[in-house]
Amino acid sequence: MSKELIRLQNLCMAYDDELVLDHLNLYINDKEFLTLLGPSGCGKTTTLRIIGGFTTPTSGDVLFDGVRINDIPPHQRQINTVFQKYALFPHLNVFENVAFGLRMQKRPDPADPTGKHRVKIPEEEIRQRVMDMLESVSLKGFENRKPDALSGGQQQRVAIARALVNQPKVLLLDEPLGALDLKLRKDMQIELKRIQQQVGITFIYVTHDQEEALTMSDTIVVMDKGTIQQIGTPEDIYNEPKNAFVADFIGESNIIDGVMVRDNVVKMYGREFPCLDGGFAENESVDVVIRPEDIDIVPVEQGQLTGTVTSVTFKGMQYDIIVDFRGFKWLIQTTDHSPVGARIGIKIDPDGIHIMKKSAYSGMFGDYSSFSDEYEEMSDASLELDEEESEDEE
Ligand SMILES: Nc1ncnc2c1ncn2[C@@H]1O[C@H](COP(=O)(O)OP(=O)(O)OP(=O)(O)O)[C@@H](O)[C@H]1O
Prior knowledge:
The protein is α+β, with helices and mostly antiparallel strands and 394 residues long.
């Protein structure tokens, strides 16, 4: 999976002088499942359209197997696309929908030594390729059904089979599951990954759904405002987000303003917390990212901080608990049930505290993370800390 197939070099796209892709650099390996993930308007579809040849970049290059393909039209690229609105032909059955592209194709006549005469693909080969493809997408036995007699997920699989039957090297998928309900979407995520592994080609997938990206991808490219924020495996992106934007976008996070005291010690709310990170300047302002599942609820007297539970939501496998800390809301995910109104202690292990350089995104976060301004106005005495420990520290 390490051979490079597509490279985007300094890709820029501007509409009316507004830069929507800003010097994108990215390579995509053969047989990789790569997802472009980011909020609405960040430039995912534009990137996909440029790879497919439907949009011409303002500047920069697209390389395929090392060859510049900027000027190659879409149908001559070995790239097919599945869109969210996968218009199947309603009057054709499943078999004919998938066979359609093959029936349109002509290729050099093997009996013509000049190679000029072109012939249609033989019917027997079409039948074989369509049936193989229907098997790959688990639709064998559905050949004679019309699209309106299929579920949304089955229709989407017909669209995928239709895009794959031409044997492209790359399949582009633009939010292909967006129209499906949640249960079906989850089933199709697993199904898509299986299909990609079975046919063994590169998938470039666009979504704004972080869970979808984490479930399916070998590599996730997190984008915002036309720029790449981070490229990595789902594990890297989740466990080691490079900045507060990525941390906030992937999964849920508490993002708190902190100050580095020295290596392995950060100060939040006037309290020092041991952490594993270093390499920051003394007194440097930083973003402190803490995942809700990395916070332990402990008895008040053992807490590094204490607060009051303001909301408890049962989520099946765990509870989402909001703890109010003088008006600030921590999100904690735990299997322990603490009732609303309970006073609890919070404890965070050093490896649950992630320190990040202050970014343009600092202070932009909502519900669980906008602590900074009001905190500045607080004196340590007003914090709900264990009195003695607080005094020790000062
Ligand atoms: N043809 C166009 N003319 C002008 N602006 C455009 C055009 N196409 C896209 N844009 C703008 O470019 C930016 C990026 O759009 P793009 O569709 O790539 O975003 P996206 O990340 O795919 O968003 P979404 O998830 O909502 O589809 C947006 O601000 C959009 O308004």
